[in-house]
Amino acid sequence: AAEHPYSHLIDTLKDGQIKFFNPYKLNDPRYDKLPLSIRVLLEAAIRNCDGFYTKQEDVRNILHWQQEQNKAEVPFSPARVLLQDFTGIPAMVDLAAMRDAVAKHGVDPSLVNPKCPTDLIVDHSLQIDYSKCAIQNAPNPGGGEGPSGSPASVQQIENTPLLCPFHLQPVSEVETALRNQEMELIRNKERLQFFKWCSKAFKNVNVVPPDVGAVHQLNLEYLSRVVQVSDGFIYPDSVVGTDSHTTMINGLGILGWGVGGIESEAIMLGQPISLTLPQVVGCKLVGSINPLTTSIDIVLGITKHLRQAGIAGKFVEFFGPGVSQLSVPDRTTIANMCPEYNATVSFFPVDQVTLKHFKKTSELVTASSYMKAVKLFRSYDDPSEDPQYSEVIEFNLSSMVPYVSGPKRPQDRVAVSSMKEDFQSCLDEKVGFKGFHIAKEKQEIRVPFLHGGQEYQLSHGSVVIAAVISCTNNCNPSVMLTAGLLARKAVEAGLLVKPYIRTSLAPGSGMVTHYLNASGVLPYFNKLGFEVIGYGCATCVGNTAPLPEAVVDAIKQGDLVACGVLSGNRHFEGRLCDCVRANYLASPPLVVAYAIAGTVGVDFEKEPLGLTSDGKEVYLRDIWPSREEVQQIEEDTVFSSIFKDLRGRMEKGNTFWKNVECSDSLLFPWDHKSTYIRSPSFFSKLVKVPPPQSIENAHALLFLGDKVTTDHISPAGSIARVSAAAKYLMSKRLTPREFNSYGARRGNDAVMTRGTFASIKLQNRFIGKPGPKTLHIPSGQTLDVFEAADRYQRDGIPLIILAGKDYGSGNSRDWVAKGPYLLGVRAVIAESFEKLHRNQLVGMGIMPLQFLSGQNADSLELSGKERFSITLPESLSPGQELTVKTSQGKSFSVTALFDSDTDVILFQHGGLLRYVARTLL
Ligand SMILES: *[C@@H]1O[C@H](CO)[C@@H](O)[C@H](O)[C@H]1NC(C)=O
Ligand SMILES: *[C@@H]1O[C@H](CO)[C@@H](O)[C@H](O)[C@H]1NC(C)=O
Ligand SMILES: *[C@@H]1O[C@H](CO)[C@@H](O)[C@H](O)[C@H]1NC(C)=O
């Protein structure tokens, strides 16, 4: 093997037992001025320098960050990849298919493994099929009372009415959680078998079975290390994940962010992420924290501050004397919010507080000497250690008062003290983010209704959904404990929550339940109606159970602005439930408080929260737990047990998972009847020598305008009954109720290809109105996009797409390039591309071609119906101009948007998957 270009930097620890790359041996004074997050990028580039994906020039560029920031493109190979089940499936299916493909060429299939260690966490398939009363309606399979019966059949469960009368007796939260788990396992059997096979067949793959916890929480509490050690080298931990909460990890000084399924797959296949060397905004924390604010308030305060600072696409790194006041849970909560202000990460370099947190869990002596040796450790109180940031913004922690946000957007914050007035003004205001425009004479309306035999009234501002979710703040036990203590004090004071309010408690992991129970507050949550509904990501992905019918009717009758209050980190109008127009994000204790008040139109200072049974007024301040009280309980019950419990769950697994059958084979035994897992055809024509790439006489499959987003391109959500995917599934004898969602079927390329461009919002210029249709040009027929593409493919006609500006913006979706590829699309010609999507296209061997500046399909007078030919030169270079010739005799130039020679090589191999497979041949 060739000498590593940076072998001269290798140093050792622990009497030579552990090696590391020591940047101090570069003798470069710039290192000490680099933000610590950039030092992490530098270390990874040094260690992974292979001359192909990562070059010495990249290392030099990172070191030269002061000048190169926002200019140089640099690679980053994270220490590990984190996948959740939905996004994990396609990547794993591709690797399984690659094993088949190389085996066909006589290569040992066991050589196909993720190059980067991958944790796959099975949690997002949890659906709240059962909530506290629905379960009473479910057929009881075992005939008994307890959870001991055998799992109900899919048929029985799917026939269970989801809308349930509300007066039924609640069942224990344990049973509810258990039923959810059974449901999940039945529904997902094929996928679980596949995952289990992956965990056995692949090296570098760790599968966390269902119901252990949500991705981000496991990432935080179980999978994270300050450092990683492999092949005798110690290096800082870093991660990319497909969960939007991945950024939480930066609160632990572990660099990491969320990526799309395609990007994570690329990293698994050995390709680093490419990023523009980021600018790093230093966020200086000063002042001291007001004891009444929860960390959520601090988070929202800092979020707003950072939003206003306009730091989209940058790194944020915290420093200043205020940082050491923040506990690790506070930091991770803040770090979790960075998607709200579009920063790539919010990084809290490792300090004494971080190390102390880890001490509870693992050996840290070596880690700490390593981090100190390379100055990835810092003391926030010592300003002489402060790096030079691109810019500095200061935040005074004393300025925080409690807030909620809403009614429609997370950025619209309302101080709790002015909530009543603010809601009133929302009723008055014209319809908008802060307005519902309710006529004056209708604002006082009260609608009576019956619930469980009792009469209640709803009015504007009535709370009908109250969800204590620890999706965001699971990492912050103090907040959940504050809520629990508040619940306890409320119950002790004789207060209750009205029974028609849809209350739920989604603790994020069993551990949260555990510490709520251990601290004695769980029964009080339950007494107020907040019962555990499951451990996956629940309400925050929109899976709330429906409201009681009488409540829905009352809301409709009075055209009421009913409210949801939840402690998630995102919310969108109508997302919780169609008829709930105002949704507020609030800290868990405030969710409890508003649930008890039954309305958001309350001034906690001046009005009581409720009355005791003997009519005594109780104010919020009477029952709000003090910071000291909370911290004491946190110390006593939480930290010691958290890690132990999770480790126990991980090691024990669960009986369902243990009983999932799977093969021990090196190749996956595809089940040809499966409609969830199918071997994709990416490798169907894999040959040792890449095929030529010129495009002859292509038709335009679609003629699109500006701003075609990944939502238009890649299938998501439910599968429409009238769609190409539905036809396919029906041909497999599935009924519409068995279709499940595109997300759940992304391990089936046949479904996903049919779902590509199947959005009802697709604006195709070939067709007058929005819809998933296109013109099959040779026949003049209007067809589903898939059917047209299928006909072209059968006739051997290559395809291109014509598009306007910003093609492919929006969230990354794993099928956004695979889908078009399998439809036969060879190139997309657009006025401009979202950069990420451009890379995704290249990764699948599709050419992103850009019209020359000032030109577009209209200026070139293209009808879209002509045929297009693009001849590629022998040697292609990044950014080269190519000529497109049409069958009408026109010709025009376009730019081939390849960033680098590596990009060109990947493209020439027909994308990354085939490139990797071919290197094995
Ligand atoms: C932070 O704000 C508080 C109160 O508003 C003020 O007393 C204090 O001086 C401020 N601290 C700094 C460092 O600006
Ligand atoms: C964040 O990004 C989204 C989408 O790119 C954009 O619409 C929004 O304005 C950005 N917000 C901020 C605060 O930069
Ligand atoms: C709560 O703790 C009690 C006593 O330790 C135990 O019996 C019970 O099973 C626990 N409940 C939950 C939901 O963990």
Automatic annotation (TrEMBL):
It comes from Astatotilapia calliptera (Eastern happy). Belongs to the aconitase/IPM isomerase family. RNA-binding protein that binds to iron-responsive elements (IRES), which are stem-loop structures found in the 5'-UTR of ferritin, and delta aminolevulinic acid synthase mRNAs, and in the 3'-UTR of transferrin receptor mRNA. Binding to the IRE element in ferritin results in the repression of its mRNA translation. Binding of the protein to the transferrin receptor mRNA inhibits the degradation of this otherwise rapidly degraded mRNA. This is Iron-responsive element-binding protein 2. The lineage of its organism: Eukaryota, Metazoa, Chordata, Craniata, Vertebrata. One of its GO terms (cellular component) is cytoplasm. Keywords: 4Fe-4S, Cytoplasm, Iron, Iron-sulfur, Metal-binding, RNA-binding, Ubl conjugation. It is found in: Cytoplasm. PANTHER family: ACONITASE/IRON-RESPONSIVE ELEMENT FAMILY MEMBER. It comes from the Eukaryota. Residues 65-598 form the Aconitase/3-isopropylmalate dehydratase large subunit alpha/beta/alpha domain. GO terms for biological process: negative regulation of translation. Pfam families: Aconitase (PF00330), Aconitase_C (PF00694).
